[in-house]
Amino acid sequence: MKRHLFLLREVCQGFFIRFSYSTVPVYVTLLVYLVLVIGCGPAPKGPYHVPETAIAAAAKTAPEQSMETEARLPEAASIDVREVPYVRNVFKESPRISEGGLDDFYATTRGTVQHIAIISNASFDVLKAFIAEGWGPIVMVRLQGRSPEILPLSAYNDPMSEIFLQNPVDFGERRVSYKDFEIYWAASSRNKCVLITPQLLTEASVREVLGRYLPAEAFQRIRVRSR
Question: Are residues 124 and 34 in the same domain?
Fold first, then answer.
C-alpha cells in the first residue's frame, strides 16, 4: 500500500511539473495506474498471511494419539492376608505337603473354599501382577534350610528386590530376595500358583487382569484350571 501511495505522489508531482508541456501523456499515465490499482485490489488488513507448512497441514489430518497408558506393573504392591478371610480359612492349620504339591493342595480344598484356581506356566511377573490386583498367589517353596511350605505371597518391592511370604497361621512375614525366590519356587512349584478368590476365575478373566499390568506376550503360556 505504501508503494502505491508513493507512486501516486510521484505521478501527481510529475503531472503538475509537466502540465504546461503536455497534458495528454499525464492523463494516460494516471489512467493506466488507476486500472492497475483497481485490478490488484486493496491491500490485506492485519498481518500478512503465511502459507501453512506441509508439516502443520499433516498434523491436522493425522489421527489423534491414543490416551491409553501402557500396561505396567507398579514398583511395589502388598496385601494383608489377615484382611482376606477366604484365604485365611484355608490356613487354619498349616497345609500338609505331599508329593503332588500344589495340585494336591488344590484337590484337597474342595469343600473348604468356594472358588479356587491353579495357574500353570506362570512367571515371576505374573505373580507380581496378581499381588498388584489384590490376589495373594499361593506357592510352594523350599527355602534354604527348611522343609517345603505352601504359603501366600503378600508383597513385592522392586527397589529392594524382595518378595514377602506371609504365614496365615501366625501372620509372620518372611523376606526373600528375587533371585533366591525364583530358584526355590521353580524347583518346588514348577512355576505354579494357586488363587483363592470370591468369584469364579476363568482363563479369560485371569488374562484380562494380567493385561492391566503386563504385555500380552508375558502371559501367553499360562493355563488356568478352576472350580
Answer: no
The Cβ-side half-sphere exposure at 162, using a 13 Å CA radius, reads 8
Same domain membership, residue 132 and residue 217: yes
Cell of 94: 498349616
Residues, the chain, total?
A: 227
CB 117 within 8 Å of CB 98: no
Domain count, the chain: 2
Is there a domain that residue 70 lies in? no
Averaged over 89-98, what is the pLDDT? 86
Amino acid at position 149, single letter = E
Given a cut of 80, whether residue 44 has pLDDT beyond it is: no
Distance CA 62, CA 179 (A): 46
Give residue 85's identity as a one-letter amino acid code.
P
Q: Which three cell numbers stand for residue 99?
A: 508329593
pTM for the whole structure: 0.69
Report which residue type is found at 159: P
Amino acid at 160: M
Instruction: Determine the structural domain holding residue 38 and report its residue range.
Output: 2-45
Instruction: Label residue 130 exposed, middle or buried (CB < 10 Å: 0-12, 13-18, 19+).
Output: buried
Statement to judge: residues 191 and 151 lie in one domain: yes
Query: 112, 99, 169: which is closest to 140 by C-alpha?
Result: 99
